[in-house]
Amino acid sequence: MAELQAVLTANERISKETLGPRADQTDQSRRFPRENLVDLGKAGVLGLMVPKEYGGWGGTLAEMSRALEAQGQNCASTAMVVLMHYCAMATIAAKGSEAMKQQVLPMAARGEHFGTLAFSEAGSGGHFYMPVSEARNNGTGTELSASKSFVTSAGEADSYVVSTRRAGASGPTDVNLYLIPKGANGFAAQGRFEGLGLAGNASAPMSLSNVAVNDDVRVGAEGSGFQTMLEVVLPTFQIGVASISIGIATAAFQTITARVGARKYEHAGGAALASIPRVQFLVAEMAIELNAARGYLNETIRKALGGDPTAMVDVLGVKVKAAEACLGVVSRAMTLGGGWAFGRKGGLERMFRDAQAAAVMAPSSDVLKDFIGKACLGLPLF
Ligand SMILES: Cc1cc2nc3c(=O)[nH]c(=O)nc-3n(C[C@H](O)[C@H](O)[C@H](O)COP(=O)(O)OP(=O)(O)OC[C@H]3O[C@@H](n4cnc5c(N)ncnc54)[C@H](O)[C@@H]3O)c2cc1C
Hints:
It is a single chain. The strands form three sheets. A four-stranded antiparallel beta sheet has the order 2-3-7-6, with no helix packed on it. The protein has a three-stranded mixed beta sheet with strand order 1-4-5. The protein has three domains: 2-113, Butyryl-Coa Dehydrogenase, subunit A, domain 1, CATH 1.10.540; 117-221, Butyryl-CoA Dehydrogenase, subunit A, domain 2 (Beta Barrel), CATH 2.40.110; 226-376, Up-down Bundle (Butyryl-CoA Dehydrogenase, subunit A, domain 3), CATH 1.20.140.10. It is globular, with a radius of gyration of 21 Å. The chain has helices at 2-29, 34-42, 61-74, 76-95, 98-109, 225-262, 277-305, 311-342, 348-354, 357-360, 365-376, and strands spanning 115-118, 136-137, 142-151, 159-165, 175-181, 187-189, 204-212, 264-265, 271-272. With 382 residues, the protein is an alpha+beta fold.
C-alpha cells in the first residue's frame, strides 16, 4: 500500500513538473508524448493497474482515477494514452491466458510495454461493442481483416486489444478480443486523424489484413468479448474518461481563478476582475459543477468497487456528468479569460479543445443517455 501511494505521489510530481510544462508543445506540434510515457513508466505509473503477482502495483479504479486526474490536469493527451493502456492491461489481467499475462504484464509493470484498444469501426461507429468485421477460418487457422477507425496510440503502442465478430458469428455481439502485437504481419497504422483536441494522442485509423488470430492470442474464452467489454473495459474507460475530464476542469478552474484575481483595471482604480459580482457568480457556478461531478465520480467508484448492483447506471452516467461539467467549467473560464484566453494564454484554449473529446468518445453522451433511460425504465439495453 505504501508503495502504491509512492507511485501515486510520483505520478502527481511528474504530472506537474514534467507533463504540464510540455503540454503546450505536445498540443501545438501534435507530437506523441513518448518522453512522458518514459518518465511515467520509470516511476511505475504504467504498472499501476498490473496485479502485484505480475510485478505491478495492483491498483484499483480508485487509484487509476487519482492518477488520471493528475495527468489530465496537466496534459490531457498523455492522460488519454495512459487510460487506453490501463484499459488494455486491465483486460489482459482479467481475461488473458497465463502465457499472455506472463508475456505482457511484467513488461508493462517495468514501463517497457504499453498497449491500447482497437475497437471502433466505421461500420458501427460509436456503437463500438458491435464490430462489423469478422474473423474467418482459412483452412489452417483463423485470420482477421478489419479496418479500425480511431485508435489512440496507433502505430505507437506495443500491443493492441482488437475486437471482431468471431468466425461464423451468430450475431453482432458474438465477439472475440485478440491481442495483436505492433509489427504483426498484416498490421498497419494509417496516418493521423487531425482531431480538434487531444492532439498528442496519435489517434489514427488502423488496418489488419489477414492477420493470424489463433487461440494463443485470444483474450478470454471463445465468444466472450462482448461480456468482457461490459465487465472490464466499460467501467475502466468510463471512470477513466470522467477522471480526465475532472482533471481538465480543475486546471481550468485554477487557471481562471488566478487570472481574475490578477487582472486589474486602471480605469477602476486598480480593481480586480474578481471584484465584479457577475464574475464571482460564474466562478461559483464553476465550483458547484466541478464539485458535483467529483462527488458523483467518487460515489461511482465506491459503488463499483463494492459490487453494488446499481453501480452500472452510475458507471454509464459518470462520464456524461463529468464531460458536461468539464465543458461548462472550461466554457465559463474562456469567457472570463477574454482575449487573454482566446489568445492561447494560460493553456485555457487547449483545455477547451481537449474538453470536447469526452462527449464524443464512445459510448457518446447521447448513446449513454439512451442506455440509462432504458435501464431506468426496465427496458433491454441491446
Ligand atoms: C480522441 C479520440 C480517441 C479515440 N480513441 C479510440 C481508441 O483508442 N480505440 C477505439 O476503439 N476508439 C477510439 N475512439 C473512437 C470513439 O470511441 C468512437 O468510436 C468514435 O469517436 C465514434 O465516432 P463516429 O464518428 O463513428 O460516431 P457515429 O457513430 O457516427 O455517431 C455520431 C453521433 O450520432 C450519435 N448517435 C449514434 N447512435 C445514437 C443513438 N442510438 N442515440 C443517440 N445518439 C446516437 C452519437 O452520439 C454521435 O454524437 C476515439 C475517438 C476520439 C475522438
